[in-house]
């Protein structure tokens, strides 16, 4: 099946994704701003943000059992419903423990939805087109995320933000229920399997872990990065939108490079762009308008990494039987990185203010660049797995 026909057959799923990602963007980008306006410290913001990724980590371990029992479409509807309810419940109280619990629930639901979406996409794709299909998926993600984030520039009340976010999330269940679409076969439940980092796909695992640190850190703490420089919510939304625009435009370019020249080469290009961007932040101390420009390249270098890790890992498969399990392994490492990053950034930004954000990103880009150039281009097709029950 051609790339165009595959994308056309999945339009209902892509429409659902657009609503979901826009609603999640508004939730993710607003939390740090609201907490800072309520005089919470950088460390507290990092801890509450991490609760989202604790839920994500739990999802990668256990949510596959639900998908295996009720299928993809019903799982999607279930997770969306709990996600939307949890989003709107933020309006009931400003209690930090209550918010941490809600963030935990949202993390479970959101990453459960990602597992449904990504296993669906991988089941429909082959190695020759996988990066471009995942790139199209990422284009929808970042375009929707940018639109959701720009709602922040309207300076709405926190209650209005939660209502709009919940509405967008709940709308995401409509296309899959209204439009006829063939869902993948229900996968058999298995314990989570993670490729052994030194035996199978070390670059895929390293990229997913570092990608989680970078992407999770950005969506959790970039708003604080701008606020600590003395700018308000409007500037936060523009900064995040510029970064997501960079990620949006990068998908087609990096997806093409990845399919033609290899995943490793594409990863190296991304991290090199990201590292040079962070050097500009550090050396030139740019004003906010130059920061918008740099944010574009930060997004370009950062936001392709997870898709590249997933494509690199799936290249090791000789059949489709392990798609869900391999995807869960990559998602587990990504979730682990996303869980740790707000905590680390919270500590760094507590002591180094916004420079802590710059140091964190420069170090990780440099690490992954060095790691990638020392790895071979070919991956062993002998897959040994580490099982975590």
UniProtKB/TrEMBL annotation:
<protein>
    <submittedName>
        <fullName>MFS transporter</fullName>
    </submittedName>
</protein>
<dbReference type="InterPro" id="IPR047200">
    <property type="entry name" value="MFS_YcaD-like"/>
</dbReference>
<feature type="domain" description="Major facilitator superfamily (MFS) profile">
    <location>
        <begin position="9"/>
        <end position="374"/>
    </location>
</feature>
<feature type="transmembrane region" description="Helical">
    <location>
        <begin position="358"/>
        <end position="379"/>
    </location>
</feature>
<feature type="transmembrane region" description="Helical">
    <location>
        <begin position="98"/>
        <end position="121"/>
    </location>
</feature>
<dbReference type="InterPro" id="IPR011701">
    <property type="entry name" value="MFS"/>
</dbReference>
<feature type="transmembrane region" description="Helical">
    <location>
        <begin position="75"/>
        <end position="92"/>
    </location>
</feature>
<feature type="transmembrane region" description="Helical">
    <location>
        <begin position="235"/>
        <end position="258"/>
    </location>
</feature>
<dbReference type="InterPro" id="IPR020846">
    <property type="entry name" value="MFS_dom"/>
</dbReference>
<keyword id="KW-0472">Membrane</keyword>
<dbReference type="GO" id="GO:0022857">
    <property type="term" value="F:transmembrane transporter activity"/>
</dbReference>
<dbReference type="InterPro" id="IPR036259">
    <property type="entry name" value="MFS_trans_sf"/>
</dbReference>
<feature type="transmembrane region" description="Helical">
    <location>
        <begin position="41"/>
        <end position="63"/>
    </location>
</feature>
<keyword id="KW-0812">Transmembrane</keyword>
<feature type="transmembrane region" description="Helical">
    <location>
        <begin position="133"/>
        <end position="153"/>
    </location>
</feature>
<feature type="transmembrane region" description="Helical">
    <location>
        <begin position="200"/>
        <end position="229"/>
    </location>
</feature>
<keyword id="KW-1003">Cell membrane</keyword>
<keyword id="KW-1133">Transmembrane helix</keyword>
<feature type="transmembrane region" description="Helical">
    <location>
        <begin position="265"/>
        <end position="284"/>
    </location>
</feature>
<feature type="transmembrane region" description="Helical">
    <location>
        <begin position="290"/>
        <end position="311"/>
    </location>
</feature>
<keyword id="KW-0813">Transport</keyword>
<feature type="transmembrane region" description="Helical">
    <location>
        <begin position="12"/>
        <end position="35"/>
    </location>
</feature>
<dbReference type="Pfam" id="PF07690">
    <property type="entry name" value="MFS_1"/>
</dbReference>
<dbReference type="GO" id="GO:0005886">
    <property type="term" value="C:plasma membrane"/>
</dbReference>
<feature type="transmembrane region" description="Helical">
    <location>
        <begin position="331"/>
        <end position="352"/>
    </location>
</feature>
<feature type="transmembrane region" description="Helical">
    <location>
        <begin position="159"/>
        <end position="179"/>
    </location>
</feature>
